[in-house]
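User: Hey, quick favor. My workstation is busy. Could you predict this chain's structure for me?
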Amino acid sequence: MKHIDFMLTAFRDGIQSSYGARAFSADYLPVVAAAAEAGIGHFESGGGALFQAAVFYANENAFSVMDEFRRVAGPKANLQTLSRGINVVGLDSQPSEIVRLWAQLQKKHGVTTVRNFDALNDPENLMFSGKCIVEAGLRHELAISMMEMPPGAEGAAHTSAFYLDLLRKVMEAGLPFDSVCFKDASGTSHPRKVFETVAGARKLLGKDTRIVFHTHDTAGTGTLAYMSVEAGVDQIDLSMAPCSGGTCQPDIITIWHALRGTEWSLDVDINAVIALEERFKVAMKDYPLLPEAGRVEPLIPFFPLPGGALSANTQMLRDNGLMDKYPEIVAAMGEAVAKGGFSPSVTPVSQFYFQQAYNNVMIGPWKEIAEGYGRMVLGYLGKTPVEPDPEIVKLAANQLGLHPAEESPRQRCDRDATKSIAAIRRLLAAEQLPETDENIFIAATCREKGLLFLKGQAKTKVPKRADAGREGLPAAAPPNAMTVTINNRSYGIEFNSPSTVSVNGAVYSVAVKDGLDYEAIAKTASLPKEEESAGVSETKAVDSPLAGYIVKLNKKQGDKVAVGETILIVETMGMQVPVNASISGVIVEMLVGKGEAIELGQGIARVSTISHASKKTVSHARDGTIKMVGGRMALVSPSAGIVLRIYKAPGETVRVGESFLVLEALKMETPISSIRDGIVDRILVKLGDQVVEGQALAYLAEGGEA
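Assistant: No problem, here it is.
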């Protein structure tokens, strides 16, 4: 009987693909300890989205989670993490010193093996990150990313010969590795192609090098693909219910059964595994499974998405009330893949494909190039497997204001002073935070949300049922009191008398009658329409046009706000998006805080405004322009005025449509917005400066979070 090794992925890939990585480590780590006691000795313990999720959602220090994982798994366990090449754990490329620091921190916090992949399969990106892993004293598992081409695009890339040629190049370049993993994050690779690829790799590598195959069961072919053990696979990746099958890896029990009657065996105590899975189900019972988790999607070969990305993107569409657009968006993905150069559909490229397909459906075909997708086709992530469509390259260059890349992403990041460790140290010092290696890495890869976490201001955003395990229900409210929630804002209402009511403690006169008095309602809604009519002062709510998490607040109670001025920044669909005011006036109440989750249509602020006022009395934001000044890209003011407020600082990202600063002229405030994404390199004005039309306000570096 031949023994097949497996790595248990339930606590990283499983939780990511089933719950969007939003879970507390205290709930699943006891199951890790039980798995170790049951004889399982190889765990996927972190990396990928799980690192950022600890900071973004669970409000946990990812390095502390790594330490605890090592403690409960025991000193002999092989703990493996996933690294995205020179992107390490984020969506953006990092400079050499951050990539090296990541490897060193992995070793420090108990990791044994790092699986290292590049989203473009670019050998240059794999070479440096792999070198850092080896130098840190870790086992290096070189990963080659696989997927199946959408029907109609076969032959351009992603064939067995294509993967074997990449492996040959890396071997000839002398990159040391301990094992090779063929990683199919979308679960779309045809089982026959997997067999041929593994068989060819075995001939290249010889009999002693360990070959691993990783897939998801999203297309329903994961079990069949794992039969490539016959071609020479030494290890496969498996998960456990409730995080197995569908968007996750096949279940241990499923593959144990599939191998029965063959010459291969997993060599596990299957009864111990059954008991372990029951314990895992109990540990995760209070977390709502994403609807697509565990479900086979037979159309996934037409729009290859990794399991975690599929479930996360559908959830974001659902949150934003756009799930009806899902069939159109995924139908548009095939074209985005083909015209983008056929890079593997793995993070972050899978997100770029989805974002571009989303834009093509919601805005119009190729009317707006998503920033991450555009930077990819322009070469800012590295070299794509096939040259991107020339017309798309031209569109991306024009819309993003970028030339095709002339240097590698690592070289560009090394040249970008805002990404250096020295710059991160200054950010930490400015916030009076300890300048530890761990804090430097969190701030470098998690940016604004990382700093928010380190300052203790992050909000927990894990959708665990809060009343789980409670017995009984709270006492009912008395008949004359109730809580009314409007746009997720709750109001305590008490009826004091037939003519008065208290709302959150404030007393109002009230008259209630049955039915709808349409005449009275019409009179209340009827206001002067003529432009010269006197304005009417009233308080209006500004609602969020999308769901997501607030990463920055620009405004507070008492601030003035103009039409088009940024109130806050929301992260949604993998992008950070400015939410701008639709009215002008004075903010009388902010209804949300930094780090909070908000939903589509939720009120974010109440603004005292003048309805039906003359256009001359309404303040509007204006777009700046981008010009090259002294060989550097500059944001230029479209008007004159005195600098009243500056919203950004060097090293921060500014996004299209986001307010950069506010000018005051003729007693009117005019916010100036950016017309492109970038990183603020240097601010050229200060508060109180007199700015003239056409003056440069700041230098911007290429970049920005995708």
